[in-house]
Amino acid sequence: MPFNAGPMSLARRSFRLLPIAFACAAACAAVLPAMAQPVPSQAEPVVISGGGVERRAFETPYSVSIVGEEELRNAGPMVNLSESLNRVPGLVANLRNNYAQDLQISSRGFGARATFGIRGLRLYTDGIPATMPDGQGQVSHFDIAGAQRIEVLRGPFSALYGANSGGVISLVSAAPSANTYAVDGDVGSDGLWQARVGLEALFDGGWNLRVQASQFNTDGVRPHSAAQRTLGNLRLGWVGERDTLVLLLNSVDQPAQDPLGLTRAQFEQDPFQTTPQAILFDTRKTTGQTQGGGTWRHRFDDAGALRESVLTLYAGQRDITQWQAIPPATQLNPRHPGGVVSFARDYSGVDARLRWAWQGAGLIAGIASEQQGELRRGYENFIGSGASQVLGVTGALRRDEDNRVRSTDLYLQGEFELGPTLWATAGWRSGRLSVRSTDRYLPNGDDSGSLSYGYNTPVLALQWLPTPDWNLYVSAGKGFESPTLNELAYRPDGSSGFNTSLQPQTSTQFEVGAKWRNDGLGLGVEMALFQADTEEEIGVFTNAGGRSSFQNVGRTRRSGAELALRWQPAPQWRALVALTSLDAVYRDAFETCAALPCIAPADRVTVPAGNRIAGTMAQSAFASLAWRPLPATELGVEWRYQGDMPVNDRNSDFSPSASLVGLRMSHSMPLGPGTLSLLARLDNLTNRAYAGAVIVNEANGRYFETAAARNALLALRWQAPF
User: What is the distance between the alpha carbons of residues 575 and 24, in angstroms, rounded to a whole number?
Assistant: First the structure.
């Protein structure tokens, strides 16, 4: 077994700062009692949901982080998850500063290969998946301003959420607690402005309502990167004697320009320029999504061990049209799908489970079914020819498909007391995923096809709680990640038909962790060592002209360590430190295309074993220190370090590392019948020019997506009762 070397072999792979940090954490336990004044006992940790089992975050036998409401509000304009999630160890959440693409998010290296959207992670809003059955996810509709908290689960137990769950990000909305209305306004650098209105109301009979709408605008960091986002969310709740009902409805509309990435030469010449092709082809994207769903919980008070039932239903539609910078000459190839991508996607699902509890044991059993239907079309991005040719428009049809994906899972999770301080947690998820594509555009060959996968993902953890302040655990599990519809669309040899040779990737994961807290000192420390070995890793074979094909590249390994430290030495002071070390490498050599048509051996290049997985960050860190000199005023300083990232599997180039400093100030005061809250931020204080994200394996070498220069934000929020 690859883990035979034990935890010490993993620690030796940790980057240089991490052993120092671990030593500091141990030293703190001995030194801090003499340094710190005792503070009042802090509130109980937030209750989190993991695979359906509600437990306090500290007591879980896996790595889970909570980003609370105050942290979300202080992190920025509450538009992107990247504002707040970089304080979570093990997680990379990079803002591309390109709203035509989604965030670049990976968890312990899972999801790093995504060139757009989010892959390999399970995303949820109030229990409703934002990840499709094939593994593609989006977060543009996340209502961060209405969130109570965001939960981030990493490691083996992510597999309890089903296929394509290398990590889990779950947003939990805040339930109304009073009759209030609010008006928000934000202004910032690069033409940023945002307006938001909200209403919360409590009604007789246990009903409550929260409605929120916002309009966000930005000119963008670079030319041709402007974007708008109109977001609306409605939450209707009802609480009865034994029942709880939450109904959700949200809608998002987001047109955005696409500045494309920059080559290394362009980035070094002027990182804030825009590739000429983006202007020439007017590259852009429009996104619209409407989604509704609900969760009904029923408590059984007279059914013996049966304690609760939970039923979640949801349905939605997502429409996307994207105009790309693909030359007309490239589209002369009869197999080419064109330079405009357009699809209408319908999706729906159901999740039902029961929970039993006995003395010293608990069990959850459930069934989940998800489906997506997608009408996908491709068009030429030009009309006419010669001097009369017009680029950046919707031209002739080149692709017309009906794609269907369905998954059905059965799952079990139980916890058992083995002794006064020893617990076991086990789970099993078994499912089947089917994919079918019907090609209705046949002049370029029939690309129809179907595939079906079965999978089983068991997990197991042993947990020792020697005192109320210590939690030691070891966990293991199996993971499963299917190819997405995009990855199955084209065969590597260029022939027609589904990419039936592409196999799902599977992983074996291990984690060893420790959690320690001392409420009297206001101190909490969490540490974890992890390793994930993957078979049949999915990687890029060709990527050019808007058409990508994928292959299985053999074995990979992701191993490393995480440290999170929270300290409140006095009521006025709070500190946070998060460090991550990740060694994500290919364990087998494989071939990839260096040039098209990739038929002759000279068109290929060998990626050697030992290369880093593209898009992964070997080192990352976050630290913050906050001071509250007055009850309504807080000053904070933040520091973030992101290590370099390989831009492709060949590791021919890397994004440069960056060390960033930010300042913030928040203040609240009475104003009229309500309260005015102020947030001011100054980020990238040293005005560092760096790449916030990379487009992995981009065939034109346009890998680099520039981050914002020094930038400021002023956010105002007025809330009043009625």
Answer: 14
